[in-house]
């Protein structure tokens, strides 16, 4: 059932173009308008929302962190993202105009379930983004937007994560459409770009030959740092989580701008630092991240850079470079996460670990 792959995780990494395409399928019109009739929450109700809180655990939480950038940008509604196990214990400010979006691949995670029960008791509307039909979390939510990733068997989420980002983007664009915060042609343009990502994910998958060699080179390293900025920051967190989960390797993700406020003290000769570089654009983010790569390299870091193809500035500072097809900043996580997933899979394989069933972890954690 692994379809010729050694691990379900590897199979699931390769299924991502289809998983994302299936998640988008049927949810927009030929003109690029969002059509999420399945939501069953009235448009008036969605117009009254004045705050969005995303609650989730693990990779789903990181998908939520990515989504925050897009949702706030598109809808101009304040969006918080919170670890589900922290949520109800801090007396969060919730009322009838709060929209809680919960993200869970399994739909059975107890921490997440408890969080949404609390939110509904306080009068919030809850939309679940879930991969499992009829699971407890969607059943206990007001509405559900299913990801269509197909069953995810590997404990470390891969296609689950990518499809969660895609589903959150559909929801964000839909809210922008209902609330009139974007023009129809703007929505159509983003939707067109989103719909065009599956073959680009495939291109990334086809370009990962160097990963095995990189994994062999770093297999005995003690610690790996991941840096990113804007939506690249949660991608860095997700890259680090994959290494912890399956390769039992200490790894941490940081916002690149925080480097100088502490983490750079960790950088020493040969320390591997992965850097997700934002696309070249009008803002200064790209150049600032390039400076961060120079800074860690000057202190001896071994730099692995994930950047847009043709970026003329990264080559000089990258010990190893992974190129991504050109997309806009908000869509880059759908591509940039892929080499990081594969890297973790290769390191864990080389170490001889059970990639699909890492020690101490369960695919779905049904206790708080
Ligand atoms: C963890 C899994 O325990 O639960 C992670 O090991 C997963 O891989 C997290 O991201 C959240 O799970 P779910 O099913 O709620 O998305």
From TrEMBL:
The residues responsible for catalysis, as annotated, are 363 (for fru-6p isomerization activity)
Predominant place of localization: cytoplasm
Q: Which GO terms describe its molecular function?
A: carbohydrate derivative binding; glutamine-fructose-6-phosphate transaminase (isomerizing) activity
Keywords, comma-separated and alphabetical: Aminotransferase, Cytoplasm, Glutamine amidotransferase, Repeat, Transferase
Quote the subcellular location field of this record.
Answer: Cytoplasm
For this record, the Gene Ontology CC terms, alphabetical, are:
cytosol
Report the EC number(s), separated by commas if there are several. Answer: 2.6.1.16
Q: The SIS domain covers which part of the protein? A: 42-181, 214-358
Keyword set includes Repeat: yes
Q: Which GO terms describe its biological process?
A: carbohydrate metabolic process; fructose 6-phosphate metabolic process; protein N-linked glycosylation; UDP-N-acetylglucosamine metabolic process
Catalytic reaction equation(s): D-fructose 6-phosphate + L-glutamine = D-glucosamine 6-phosphate + L-glutamate
Give the record's subunit note.
Homodimer.
Per its record, how is this protein called by name?
Glutamine--fructose-6-phosphate aminotransferase [isomerizing]
Gene giving rise to this polypeptide: glmS
């Amino acid at each position: 059932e692994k379809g010729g792959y050694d691990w379900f995780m590897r199979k699931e990494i390769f299924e991502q173009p289809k998983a994302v395409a299936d998640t988008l399928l049927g949810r927009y019109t030929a003109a690029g308008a969002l059509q999420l009739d399945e939501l069953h929450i009235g448009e008036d109700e969605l117009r009254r929302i004045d705050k969005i809180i995303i609650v989730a655990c693990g990779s789903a939480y990181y998908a939520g962190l990515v989504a925050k950038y897009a949702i706030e940008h598109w809808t101009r509604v304040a969006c918080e993202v919170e670890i589900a196990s922290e949520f109800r214990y801090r007396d969060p400010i919730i009322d009838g105009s709060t929209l809680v979006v919960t993200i869970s691949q399994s739909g059975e995670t107890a921490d997440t379930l408890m969080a949404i029960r609390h939110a509904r008791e306080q009068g919030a509307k809850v939309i679940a983004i879930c991969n499992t039909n009829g699971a407890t979390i969607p059943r206990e939510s007001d509405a559900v937007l299913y990801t269509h990733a197909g069953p995810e068997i590997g404990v470390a989420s891969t296609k689950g994560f990518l499809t969660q980002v895609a589903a959150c983007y559909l929801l964000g664009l839909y809210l922008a459409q209902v609330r009139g915060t974007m023009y129809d042609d703007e929505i159509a343009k983003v939707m067109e770009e989103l719909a065009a990502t599956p073959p680009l994910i495939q291109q990334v998958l086809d370009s990962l030959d160097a990963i095995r060699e990189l994994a062999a080179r770093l297999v005995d390293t003690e610690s790996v740092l991941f840096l990113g900025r804007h939506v690249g920051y949660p991608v860095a967190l997700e890259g680090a989580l994959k290494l912890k989960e399956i390769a039992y390797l200490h790894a941490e993700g940081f916002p690149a701008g925080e480097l100088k406020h502490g983490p750079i003290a960790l950088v020493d000769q040969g320390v591997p630092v992965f850097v997700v570089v934002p696309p070249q654009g009008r803002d200064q983010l790209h150049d600032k991240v390039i400076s961060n790569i120079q800074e860690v390299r000057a202190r001896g870091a071994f730099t692995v850079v994930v950047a847009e193809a043709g970026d003329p500035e990264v080559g000089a500072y990258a010990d190893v470079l992974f190129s991504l097809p050109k997309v806009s900043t908000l869509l880059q996580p759908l591509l940039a996460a892929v080499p990081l997933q594969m890297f973790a899979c290769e390191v864990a394989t080389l170490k001889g670990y059970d990639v699909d069933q890492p020690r101490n972890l369960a695919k779905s954690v049904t206790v708080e």
